[in-house]
Amino acid sequence: MTLSLWFLLIPFGLLFVVWLVLSSVAIVKMLRFGFVSRPAVVSSFIFVIFAVAVLVGTTVSLREVDWTANFELGTPSVELPSVNISSPFTR
Amino acid sequence: MKIQPTFPNMLPDERVVLMLHRHGFVAVRIALLYFMLALVPVAAWLLLGTRTDIFVDVTSAGYAVATMLLSAYALVWGLLFFVSWLNYYLDVWIITNERIINITQQRLFHRIVSEQKLYRVQDVTWQIEGVLGNLFKFGNVTIQTAGEQGKFTFEHIPDPESVAKSVMHLLEQIENQMGASTMAKMDGDLLEGSATPNVKPRPEPPSTPPAGAVPPSVKL
Asked: What are the start-end ranges of the H helices in B52-179?
């Protein structure tokens, strides 16, 4: 079964949407119930910086991928070494 | 100058005496777990980089899949780490000069807040158990109250002995303020099963008559 490579972006996009919603809720909770203290603000800031770094890194890494190319689903892309076993029963 | 900590819905004249989180050792333990989990994609990256040529051709499908998997892992890892930190940091026990507030953040969408007036405290127990508890001096303080909540347990808090002493000290102060007779009456009410004692928690001090006023006569 041949699929276009950009189909892979669909599950990644869905995961990203769920992640974005949960992250927003977590940050809002931290800032709302964290008594507006320094650890709450700093940890939220670090989380946002980390997330932005991961997303920018992913975007840069995937920039050169040819998304119009097709790939075979269900067949291994790694060529397994051929093994020649001579069985004593086939002699 | 020390800034007085505050929290929402503070009563007038209320003063925060203690604001407790779980011991830092608990946070370090969580962080260590997540740092170990962070090694998984690094190991995968190194393994795939050395054993296969998947990262050589940056236009290939294998490269795209590997990069997206690593990215998804990193995003989920970061979110779970942040939520674990949130669960740790938003678990708070606040002791003020009026009440005890127990805030438990169990999950991202599960938060329990319960409070009890200090004068309802009946019994305070502290305990340190285990090697790590004795080593890092953290443990539990259980406060038995007369309300519906029953008891509050401050879990894994640093120096439970001094926390228990502080609560007892606050109770003594309240006893002194309210007077022994009021406390005894409240004890009686509580023993009879009354949920809300029919006494004011803080009776007004007896008004002193103005200078020169004639005391009221008593009819015999």
From this structure: 61-89, 131-136, 160-178
Give the C-alpha distances (Å, rounded to integers) separating B134 from B127, B128, B143, B161.
10, 6, 21, 12
Nearest to B96 by CA among B208, B20, B207, B204: B20
Distance CA B198, CA B171 (A): 19
Task: Reply yes or no on whether the pLDDT at B27 is more than 80.
Answer: yes
Closest CB from A19, A40, A66 relative to B59:
A66
Amino acid of residue B38: A
Chain B residues touching residue A16 (CB < 8 angstroms): 75
Give chain B's length: 220
Q: What is the H or E stretch that residue B115 is in?
A: strand B110-117
Nearest CA to A76 out of B44, B47, B52, B72 is that of B52
The two three-digit tokens of residue B101, written as one number: 């507030």
Helix (H) or strand (E) holding B99: strand B99-107
pTM for this predicted structure: 0.75
How confident is residue A77, by pLDDT bands cut at 50, 70 and 90? low
User: B-chain residues within 8 Å CB-CB of A47?
Assistant: 78, 82
Q: Which of B186, B199, B170 is nearest to B94 (CA)?
A: B170
pLDDT tens sequence across B159-211:
999 999 999 988 888 888 777 656 666 655 555 544 444 434 444 444 444 44
pLDDT at residue B131 in the model: 92
Q: How far is B136 from chain A (nearest CA, A)?
A: 22
Complex prediction ipTM: 0.78
Residue with tokens 């708070």: B92
